[in-house]
Write a structure and sequence with these properties.
The complex is a heterodimer of chains A (about 260) and B (about 425). Chain A has about 260 residues and is an alpha/beta fold. Chain A has two domains: about 170 residues, Rossmann fold (3-Layer(aba) Sandwich), CATH 3.40.50.300; about 90 residues, P-loop containing nucleotide triphosphate hydrolases (Rossmann fold, 3-Layer(aba) Sandwich). Helix content of chain A is about 40%, strand content about 25%. In chain A, the strands form two sheets. In chain A, strands 6-7-8-3-9-10 form a six-stranded mixed sheet, sandwiched between helices. In chain A, strands 2-1-4-5 form a four-stranded antiparallel sheet, covered by helices on one side. In chain A, helix 3 packs parallel to helix 7. The relative contact order of chain A is 0.17. The model of chain A has no long low-confidence stretch (mean pLDDT about 85). Chain B is mainly alpha-helical and about 425 residues long. Chain B folds into two domains: about 80 residues, no CATH class; about 325 residues, no CATH class. Chain B has a two-stranded antiparallel ribbon with strand order 1-2. In chain B, strands 3-4 form a two-stranded antiparallel ribbon. In chain B, helix 1 packs antiparallel against helix 2. The longest helix of chain B has 29 residues. Chain B is globular and about 80 Å long. The mean pLDDT of chain B is about 80. Classes of the chains: A alpha/beta (about 260), B mainly alpha (about 425). Chains A and B meet through helix 2, helix 3, helix 4 and helix 6 of A and helix 11, helix 12, helix 13 and helix 18 of B.
């Protein structure tokens, strides 16, 4: 499976007596949007937390195919997953830096690159031209992404003052600033109105098609899931109950049962 | 509607008067006096009446002057707001004015020994406040043991200067380095802690350093303290009336009359320069990636991790840099006093520095200056009241917290802006 971006094999996560993820295996292809859906409490966010190093999986393995090298994600602890493996994520309840400006949010995402450019602050303190150039580049990258989500004119406002929908989009483009291989989005459409979800779809398709970044998506909003997913994985009680294309998922009796219950 | 408001104001102030009566009636009104070996209650209703009247009228005035405007404009309008607006728009000019004033201050006619000493003390607190501002204001790590680094700086300066006879300009960076190392030492165990837990551990750390200094008699002379710390010299020229044989002093070199003020003025400029270095360093580093990472860490540590920012290194650098400036201030303290003992590094010092930073407005450099002038100045002004002056100190804190809950200057300027880049 050379074109797989992510291979999750027999992943389990146990919290005391609760088995949150039970022997889960799935893969995500390159340049694809893979959705993980399931009823509340099915273990979707737990999968994300294992992938991005916030939890240590009880057993199983996760491999990321980066530049034709297989990286074992289990070996990276929290921030290193983003720094070394290039897995970015967003959160169910938006986690921006609310008291910092929109542009600063984007700059923090480019921290590691800028830190090296600033010679671990020594060159930066001396105003070295090489650092100033890199900083300018980082601002350009931020501007590029802010232009895409139409937030450039609010770049100097506090991120916490933005409307909810813009905060969601900002969190996604901020994650894109670390130049990820895999972007994990945890319910990006939660709380968005119909127009905003349509814009979100456009943004995600742009990331997939133009930036060739694989996307892993947790979502409840079916207009988003069905509209843009190439592949859908359905979880219930920590187990995978179905896997297939969006259309297949819609018609699958197991999925309907998980969401709506059985007919007596 | 206006009439309605007037009525409710009267009602509200009468109610305030009632509370005042209930409170002050028994406390002030009833006084026991010894008459012929028996205790007699002596009522003082006139005083109570005056207090109650003052409370009622005061409340009424607040009602019609402050709350009314609030209703009209939909936002609180008070003197503090006007002051903040003024400081926001004219910040650069005010800062420049303040620097110029502090440079010419020693040559003001009123700048006698007493004022110079206060100015030096205030400047030391401002520097400590700026140093701690990195840790608390930028990185959001509530450090209640900051005085430990001040102590480490003072003691390492004193020990190097006494035992090796090195000059101030060699010992100063060494003391900063030592304090910075202690900052990292404290940083490691508290990496996972936040908020209250962090505050408790740093508090304990501060006490540990003090107790260590008190008990390690061979090195620190314990409670006796270290004496004979060399005074600073002006590029090798000592400030002495009767120098040793063959040594040129400051006043003979410049052909001046000897005056003890020369040394004081030199010390004043020394701490002014050190404080300004701290200030410019902080302003600059805030705009660097590491400074932004500090602030991001204060805002949301989990989001930082998800963006690949190393929280451990970020926190440790904040602790180390903050501690280093504490160490610099400590070595200045040692050379100024020529005597140090653990007495000078008690928890109350930490508390005052934290109060300066928090009341100034977290992360605001100018706010630190304002709150230092306000708090330390008040303590000095009320010196005649002896221990009651701490009431003024507490009162000042309460006033600031009531009128400016986020600190005197709570506005934050972005470290980088788009408009400039265009």
């Amino acid at each position: 499976m050379r074109d797989n971006l992510l291979d999750v094999e027999n992943l389990s996560m146990r919290f005391g007596g609760l088995l949150a993820i039970d022997d889960l295996s799935f893969s995500a292809k390159k340049d694809n949007i893979t959705s993980i859906i399931g009823p509340n409490g099915a273990g979707k966010t737990t999968v994300f937390n294992c992938l991005t190093g916030f939890y240590k999986a009880t057993s199983g393995s996760m491999f990321l195919n980066k530049d034709n090298k297989k990286l074992d994600l289990k070996k990276f602890s929290d921030f290193k997953v983003a720094q070394k493996a290039g897995v970015a994520r967003t959160f169910q309840n938006i986690r921006l830096f609310p008291q910092m400006s929109v542009l600063e949010n984007m700059m923090v995402a480019q921290h590691n690159k800028l830190m090296i450019a600033s010679g671990f602050s020594i060159l930066g303190l001396l105003n070295a031209p090489s650092f100033l150039k890199k900083e300018k580049e980082a601002v350009e990258i931020s501007k590029y992404w802010l232009d895409i989500i139409n937030l450039t004119n609010r770049a100097d406002d506090n991120a916490g003052d933005l409307p909810y929908g813009d905060q969601r989009k900002l969190e996604i483009v901020r994650a894109m600033c670390i130049n990820p291989h895999l972007l994990c989005l945890d319910e990006p459409a939660a709380g968005l109105n119909a127009k905003e979800s349509a814009e979100l779809n456009k943004l995600l398709l742009f990331i997939k098609n133009e930036k060739k970044t694989g996307i892993l998506l947790i979502e409840h909003d079916m207009s988003v899931v069905m509209g843009i997913s190439d592949h859908v994985v359905v979880l219930n009680y920590g187990k995978k109950i179905f896997e297939g294309t969006a259309k297949e998922t819609k018609n699958s009796p197991e999925v309907i049962e998980a969401y709506l219950g059985t007919e007596d | 509607m206006n009439k309605n408001f007037f009525q409710s104001s009267i009602k509200d102030s009468l109610f305030t008067g009632l509370i005042a009566l209930a409170l002050f009636g028994p406390i002030v009104g009833l006084r026991t006096v010894a008459v012929n070996e028996a205790l007699v209650v002596q009522p003082k209703w006139l005083v109570v009446g005056l207090i109650v009247l003052a409370c009622t009228i005061g409340r009424f005035l607040i009602n019609i002057y402050t709350f009314k405007k609030e209703q009209r404009r939909g936002e609180p309008s008070s003197i503090s707001k006007i002051i903040t607006n003024f400081l926001d728009t004219k910040g650069a000019q005010i800062a420049l004015g303040a620097v110029i004033f502090s440079v010419i201050f020693p040559f003001m006619p009123f700048a006698d020994r007493y004022w110079m000493d206060i100015a030096i003390m205030m400047m030391t607190y401002i520097m400590l406040g700026w140093g701690l501002n990195i840790v608390i204001g930028l990185a959001g790590l509530l450090d209640l043991g900051y005085v430990a680094f001040y102590a480490v700086g003072a003691y390492s300066y004193a020990l190097f200067a006494i035992h090796f006879g090195w000059s101030f300009w060699i010992c100063l960076p060494l003391a900063g380095l030592f304090a910075g190392l202690f900052g990292i030492l404290l940083g490691f165990p508290v990496l996972r802690l936040r908020g209250d837990y962090l505050a408790i551990v740093t508090l304990a750390f501060g006490e540990m350093i003090r107790i260590l200094l008190l008990n390690w008699y061979d090195l620190t002379k314990g409670p006796d303290g270290l004496t004979g710390i060399p005074r600073p010299s002006f590029f090798g020229l000592p400030f002495k009336r009767y120098p040793d044989e063959g040594v040129e002093t400051f006043h003979t070199f410049f052909g001046l009359e000897y005056s003890p003020m020369q040394r004081i003025i030199f010390l004043y400029y020394l701490i002014l320069i050190l404080a300004l270095i701290t200030n410019f360093f902080t302003i600059k580093i805030r705009k660097l990636p590491v400074g932004r990472a500090w602030e991001a860490l204060r805002e949301d540590e989990i989001a930082c991790k998800s963006l690949g920012v190393n929280p451990r290194n970020t926190k440790l650098t904040a602790f180390a840099v903050g501690a280093m400036f504490g160490g610099f201030a400590g070595s200045f303290f040692a050379t100024r006093q020529a005597f140090i003992s653990p007495e000078s590094f008690t928890f109350i010092e930490s508390a005052i520095i934290v109060a300066i930073v928090v009341l100034g407005g977290m992360g605001s450099q100018t706010g630190v200056v304002l709150s230092t002038i306000f708090l330390i100045g008040l303590i000095e002004v009320f010196r005649d009241f002896e221990s009651y002056r701490m009431i003024a100190f507490g009162g000042a804190m309460v006033l600031i917290m009531v009128f400016r809950p986020k600190g005197i200057l709570a506005t934050r300027k972005p470290t980088i802006t788009m408009r400039k880049e265009k």
